[in-house]
Structures are given as C-alpha cells and as structure tokens.
Amino acid sequence: MAVTNKLMEVFPKLQEGGGFEFLKIAGSTRSRNLSLLQCPNTGYTLAYLKDPSTTIGQATIYIRPLQQDLPIDSESSGHASGPAISCITCQKEVPFSEMKLHRANCDGTPMQETHREGEGDRCEENDREPPTDRDSVPVRPETSVQSGVEPVVIESGKIDLKELDNDWKIIKEPTLAAQVFKDNLLSEHATGKPLRLKMDVRESEEDRERALLSFYKQQQEWACPLHCTLDGGVGQTLLFEGEPDHLVPAASEVLIESNLFRVAGRMIAHSFLHDGPHVTGLSPAVIHVLFNGDPEMATIVVEDCPDLHIRSIIQMLELEELTQEQKDTVSDLSLSWDLPAVTKTNQRWLHNKLLVHAVIGRTMRQIKQLRKGLKDVMLWPLLTSRPDVVPLLFPKMAGMQFVPQMFLDKITWPVEDSDDEDEGLDIECKCRITGFLRVFIETASSDTLAQLLKFWVGWEMLPSELKVEFSGGTFPSSSTCFETLKLPAHYNTYKDFEEALVAAIDSAHTGFGLV
C-alpha cells in the first residue's frame, strides 16, 4: 500500500482512474514499445518492483489509469476564463476556456431553427445531453472530436437512404453503414481524375505483378472512379503467412523496405470500397493492433506464430520442467530479442513475452504500413468510428460457409456457339463433363467449395458470374482474371474427373493474400 498511497498523494487525480498499472520500455532500438508490468496478487509493492525478475533496473516506469482516461487539459479546471464567445451551432454564449468542451457536447441544433416559446426554454434545451441508445455502437474517443458523443442508432427500415448523407455513424447494421459511407465517399470524388489500371494478362507473371504494384504505389485520390483494362492471373508475392484465421504479415525485410504493405493496405481498402474481394483469415491479434489496440492487451495464441521453429521453442515454456538443452535453446531466442534468459520464476512471463514479440513485435512495421494504406483510401473514419464494420473488411475464414446452390446459381454453362477450345466436341461429351462438375459441386463440403472457388477466381468470394469453358489440356485449369474454369473433355468416368479436379485444386497456391 505504500506505493499506492504515495502515488495518490503526489497525483491525486489518479484516484479518478479506477486503479492504475505500470508499464516500462521493452524491445530493441528499432522496435521499442511500452510493455505492461504484470501486477501480482499483493499489488505493486517496493519489494516486487526491486525484484530482479521484473527486469526494471534503472528503467523509467510509466503509470497508466486502469478504467478511464484522466482529463489533463485546461477545460477540466474549475475556473472559466476568457471572454464569452457565441457558439456557431447553437448560438449560446460560452466562456473562451470552455468552448472546446462545449463543442464536443453541443447537440448541434441552431437556436434560430427551433420553435420554442421562450429564451429560457431555448437555453435549457441546448444544455441537454444528446439522446443515447443502449444498442448504439461505441465510438473510439481518440478518433475525432465528434466521437466524444455516442451516436444514436436507428433501424434501417425507418430511414431513407437518399437522406442519410453523412449519417452512416447512426445506422445500426454495419453492412448498411459501410455501404452508405462508401457511396458517400465515391459520390464526393465522382468528378475527380479517374484512376486507370491497364494490364496485359498475356504477359509474364513478373510483368503482371509489376504493373499491379506500380499502380498502387502511386500517390492518388483513391476514391476517384476506377477504370481497369485487362488485355488479353496475378503475381504471387506472399504478403501474409500462417494458418487460416491466424495469418500475420510476412516478416520479409524486402517487402518492408519496398513499402509493399502500404500498397497492400491500399489494395485491401480499394477492393472493399468497390465491393471487391476481401483478405480472409487475418489473426485477431493483428487486427486488434492494426486499429490502435494495445499489443499487451491483444489475445495471442500460439497458432498466430507462423514460424514453426520459433513456435516449437515457445511451446517448450509450457512444460513443467525444462532440460538444460531446452533452457539453452529458449535462452538463445530470448536473448536475441533483448529478453532475459529463462528461469524457474519467469517461465510463464517469458512465454507471453516471446509470443507477443513473435506475432506483433516482428510485424509492427508491416502493421503500420497497412494502417497508412487504409488511411490513403480514406476508409479510416468508418473503421475507427464503427468497429462493427471491421469484420466486414477482414472476415474470418471459419465464418464463411458455402453451399452448392450458391455456386450453381452463379455458373454460366457453355453454349453451342461459344468460342472456347471445344472444336470437335459433340453435345453428348459437353453434357457429360458439365454433369460431372455439377455432381462435384452438389456433393462437396463447404471447405472443398471454398478451395474450388479460390482455384476458380483467385479468392474466397463469389463473383457475380462463374464461367465454364472446355479446353484441350490434361488437367482442369482456370483464368482467375476472367473468372473462368477450363475443363478438359477427355474424362469418361466421374471418378477420373473428380481425381483430376481435386489434384488441380490442391496444386494451386493462389488467393488475395498473394498479391
């Protein structure tokens, strides 16, 4: 209690924070950040702070209120100062020193537009708090001045989309709110200079990749109209690695130095803006930090570590007893990341620290670039004011369920006068192959359909149309840019067709995570 009492004596305002926690600087010179100093059951004591296991030494300790931010600006003082100024919104006279606080809570109703009977009634009405709703979506207070007021949520069935304008903050359904925001943003830039992307899909994979990345490396108004011309799929630079729903940015210095993750952020936001495909399966911990969450508060699991060797070392710390060889292996890794060697007392603590660094510490620069890319396309206000829209931008793969009818409704089957490579094929042969494909789709599981879709169009999102053509190849193939599945016609049994299609799907490594 000595530590707590002294802090409350020196910093009395800390009593309003609902508790406090200590942080200290950790990490190397290039990745320094504040890490949480775990609070023991006895609370922070002098003995605990001096304990070598805390690795504090001569480090500076930072204090953070636990339950709420503490006001430290001049408006929080008890004395108003300065001349009275008229609010441009409600026309109320407010002291100079309190104007910012008044603007943050002003109900936005001009007095001349009201129809109240007396001046006293008008003043009373302007002083009222804006209405709130229990189901309203919380707004992050650090995003803007307006976010200090919790928005009123209204049902989509009670509103006219033509009258919404900037009211996307108060729409309950995140899908509709995102659509209104995107429509407003595109409408505002509809007369801007169009973005023009031209790619020849007949060129080499390297040339196609270069054209795409060169386009997104430019500084442009990314909400302007997009004109894309394909003459004639896409490259395969691995930007995200790991397991499904645990993907993290690749730890490649070449990609970081090339600023490719900022390019990827632009591509992700631009695709979302135009209702295109999404990046699926990103780690929740990465998403948490991407939107300014505290790395120490992120929920990180061992599956989030894409490096299997590092993962196996971290998992050693889950054992009750470590052999000397295991201790040496763990200590080599921890010391290389500016963390102490493993001991009996810090084993669990070191496990958490290594996991945080393996998943977040090694990808912090990539995450910052992704954040800049999202801001370049001007989606940041939507994503920070409406956290419920974030799952629409980064959906989980586990949450995506496909059923056969979803595919069958989108397929455009070959016709007799089509221009595909089907010379010499009779109608009976065409019907047999398309029948095999239909049976494959109708009997496939949701996971198999997801793999088929990625093979077919390059990502796990159904387009408006799925095309089928015949080809003269040995195995099924696809043209992802044209969303076309090409099927050879030499299969006489369904078993042969199924084996060939499964082999083709399993051998393909594509998807929107590969740019």
Give short descriptive properties of this protein.
globular; three-stranded antiparallel sheet; 13 strands; disordered C terminus; 515 residues; alpha/beta; 37% helix
Folded structure, characterized:
This protein is α/β, with parallel strands linked by helices. 37% of the residues lie in helices and 11% in strands. It contains 19 helices and 13 strands. The chain has helices spanning 2-10, 46-50, 99-105, 119-126, 174-188, 205-217, 253-257, 260-273, 284-290, 308-316, 324-336, 347-359, 364-376, 380-385, 390-393, 404-408, 427-443, 446-457, 494-507; strands at residues 20-26, 33-37, 61-65, 84-86, 93-95, 195-200, 226-231, 240-241, 248-249, 411-412, 466-471, 477-479, 484-488. The strands form 5 sheets. A 4-stranded mixed beta sheet has the order 10-11-13-12, covered by helices on one side. β6, α6 and β7 form a beta-alpha-beta unit. α10 (308-316) crosses α11. The longest helix has 17 residues, at 427-443. The radius of gyration is 29 Å and the shape is globular. It starts with a helix and ends in an 8-residue tail after the last helix. The model is unreliable at 74-78, 110-159, 161-165 and 510-515 (pLDDT under 50).
